[in-house]
């Protein structure tokens, strides 16, 4: 059994290969994404700031992670990242930002994580990958799946204002976002 809440000390760090250099200033696609809260969201139509953390895949306590998962730079850490955004949620709201997580996993799969981790925000599903393909988001292959590389976007009025890429370590991402928001209020 893998402890989904702990990050291994020898986790390989991802490198910035420029895969997100095209994103600042991009308008996000006007597509509705289903959320674990039962609502659908068009991120292009939301006013103000939105923090959108993109993650590869949440594991389940009763399941195995794909073979070699811990050796893929940036793959491991979805649970610690989600928990950090949960723990900093009130501060992020106070800084004027709403929060969503997004993966290519179906909503039914994401629902288990949202409930188990007591997330106060919705996880969004891009299972058909239309949204992520429109933005040309970076991906990787693992366990026979095409997954999103860990990236966090700050959206303002439907436009990408800032990009955190690569995100490492994932459990510090929410604090890094808070620091950025404080410096750019």
Automatic annotation (TrEMBL):
Pfam families, per database record: Redoxin (PF08534)
PROSITE patterns: THIOREDOXIN_2
Domain Thioredoxin as annotated: residue spans: 22-185
Key words, A-Z: Antioxidant, Disulfide bond, Oxidoreductase, Peroxidase, Redox-active center
The keyword Magnesium is assigned to this record: no
Domain of life: Bacteria
GO CC terms, sorted: cytoplasm
GO-annotated molecular function: thioredoxin peroxidase activity
GO process annotations (BP): cell redox homeostasis; cellular response to oxidative stress
Gene3D superfamilies: Glutaredoxin (3.40.30.10)
Name of the molecule in the record: Peroxiredoxin
